Amino acid sequence: MPSPELVQLAAVVLAALIVGGAVYVVALPYFSGARKAERRVANVMLGQTKMRVKTAVQPLQTRRKQVQETIKDLEAKQKAQRRVSLRTKLLRAGLSITPRSYYLFSAASGLLGGLIMLLIGWGPILALLVAFACAFGLPRFVLWRLIKRRQDKFLVELANAIDIIVRGIKSGLPLSDCLTMIAGEAPEPVKSEFAELVEQQKVGVPLGRAFERMYERMPLQEVSFFAIVVAIQAQTGGNLAEALGNLSQVLRDRYRLQAKVKAFSAEAKASAMIIGALPPTVMLLVYLTSPDYIGVLFHERLGKIFLIASGMWMLIGIFVMRKMINFDY
Questions:
Q1: How far is residue 257's CA from residue 275's CA, in Å, rounded to a whole number?
Q2: Are residues 226 and 248 in contact, defined by beta-carbon separation less than 8 angstroms?
Q3: Domain 152-255, CATH number (from 1.10.8, 1.10.10, 1.20.81, 1.10.3470)
Q4: 3-state secondary structure the chain
Q5: pTM for this entry
Q6: What pLDDT, on a 0 to 100 scale, did the predictor assign at position 53?
Q7: Segment 159-178 mean pLDDT
Q8: pLDDT tens digits along 239-273
Q9: 219-246 tens-digit pLDDT
Q10: Where are the domains of the chain?
């Protein structure tokens, strides 16, 4: 069973990590320039709006205004639904379980984790911390991974699905028949998402509302682009095949750009992983080979202070490296 000093040290380290993470989340936008960039974009958009009011209204400008209002309405509806329910998250992950089953799984995971820690001889405080992590952290992480994997599969096949719509429209088929074709022949998860879209159309749901619900289940910018193109064509008219063809090319270019970003950042990510894992690995090896040499850090008061300080600096360094290797495009 761990000594009281070790339990106290673990509690202090956990508290330091929580405080460091909270400070990072709150203070990073102000140091990274994100707030300044948002204010600058808002000022530019305000200036463009004032110039647009001063310009005389012409037919072309009227159509542009309709397009802008349509995009603005769609974006406003999407922003109004920022808080996502658990049921929606389960749908995004492609799981057919209910929120009640998810909560039961989380409770069982927490109880099992805490019981295992008690059986191997850990104290009740550490067992409680592990149970809390297994009940609230582990299920959320698994759900997030399932959502991310499903969205990646959807992006790979979305451009091909749009190409099918383009070829169908050029051959004379209506949009509804093209959507039905995708719902029956496309691979998962595109097949299930478009099948839900077709089923909603059959029961009388408007196409725009059906796309909004599709975006709720699959909150990707590519899906938003698709919905905006179809909505604009429905209100203003035009060549839908040409618009969707351009959208398909844009989606493929975005996918290629994403692949290039991953390739270019692979070396930086590997370096960050090595740098982040090196200090604890060296400490573990020294502890296994010469426990008396490094035991001063665990038994002396000054050594514990050094451990806590170094852990916080390591955490800050990992967050900084993660921010450096994540690119927005």
A1: 27
A2: no
A3: 1.20.81
A4: CCCHHHHHHHHHHHHHHHHHHHHHHHHHHHHHCHHHHHHHHHHHHHHHHHHHHHCCCCHHHHHHHHHHHHHHHHHHHHHCCCCCCHHHHHHHCCCCCCHHHHHHHHHHHHHHHHHHHHHCCCCHHHHHHHHHHHHHHHHHHHHHHHHHHHHHHHHHHHHHHHHHHHHHHHCCCCHHHHHHHHHHHCCCCHHHHHHHHHHHHHCCCCHHHHHHHHHHHCCCHHHHHHHHHHHHHHHHCCCHHHHHHHHHHHHHHHHHHHHHHHHHHHHHHHHHHHHHHHHHHHHHHHHHHCHHHHCHHHHCHHHHHHHHHHHHHHHHHHHHHHHHHCCCC
A5: 0.60
A6: 41
A7: 84
A8: 778 888 888 888 888 888 888 887 877 777 788 78
A9: 888 888 888 888 777 777 667 788 888 8
A10: 1-53, 152-255, 258-329
Torsion sign over Cα 270, 272, 275, 279: negative
| Integer Cα distance of 282 and 285 in angstroms | 5
Beta-carbon count within 10 A of 222 CB = 19
Residue 239 main-chain phi, psi, to 5 deg = -85, 105
Q: From CA 202, how far away is CA 117, in angstroms rounded?
A: 53
With a CB cutoff of 8 Å and minimum separation 6, the contacts of 318 are 272, 276
